[in-house]
Amino acid sequence: MSDFSPGFRGRRDPDVDPSRVPPGQYVTGDFPVLSAGPTPSVGLDEWMFTVDGSVSDRKQWSWAEFSALPVEDVEVDIHCVTRWSKLDTRWRGVSVDTLLAEVETTADFAVAHSYGGYTTNLPLEDLIDGQAWIATTFDDQPLTSEHGGPARLLVPHLYFWKSAKWVRGLSLTDDDTPGFWENFGYHNYGDPWLEQRYHGD
Ligand SMILES: Nc1nc2c(c(=O)[nH]1)N[C@H]1C(S)=C(S)[C@@H](COP(=O)(O)O)O[C@H]1N2
Ligand SMILES: [Mo]
Fold first, then answer.
1. 30 lines ligand 1 (CB under 6 A)
2. Of 38, 60, 143, 184, which residue is the least packed, with the fewest Cβ within 10 Å?
3. For the structural domain made of 23-36+46-194, what CATH number should be given?
4. 6-33 residue pLDDT tens
5. Where is each Oxidoreductase molybdopterin-binding domain found (predicted)?
6. Ligand 1 pocket, residue 166 CB under 6 Å
7. Domain ranges of the chain
């Protein structure tokens, strides 16, 4: 068996600009699936996205309402804490700015909640100003369920565990509340350029 599948861009691939690869990462053409539990199945008729917590009024969107929101095309590099990076990934989604424009908040933090129970925490400032999306397509196709469909959070500037699959909402909080992996020893913030993999890095 060959070590290199046709689309593979290995760590010695001369086409890869090393300045785009954070320390300790290798570039892959694959799209590995990493899930801490079973893939939840949510029908689009029951799917809801909710912004709640420290907000003036909680906001909810059905799939039909969510699908009517403006979308953005995003091409970004993603970096998993298990050391793979994937360059120039193409997504379409609703900017978190668009969703948060509907609420008033004094919160400094957010917890993303997923169908299936996964959670991850982020400073609110990392979700705004064009840094985060609720993605519904990958490579022009509806997001597959193994990669988080129908919708996942996409926060490419942090390690990919912050990009919650099967996301069902954001709870805005005044205090920082560690999520699933953050409670299991992953770094609370997770900047790939600073190699913030685990607690204490
Ligand atoms: N709901 C949920 N979201 C999740 C995870 C998970 O287990 N459950 N794993 C995270 C981790 S560790 C990574 S690296 C990415 C993997 O996304 P992928 O399976 O699409 O590559 O999803 C993140 N989002
Ligand atoms: Mo990961």
1. no
2. 38
3. 3.90.420.10
4. 444 445 566 789 999 999 999 999 999 9
5. 37-181
6. yes
7. 23-36+46-194
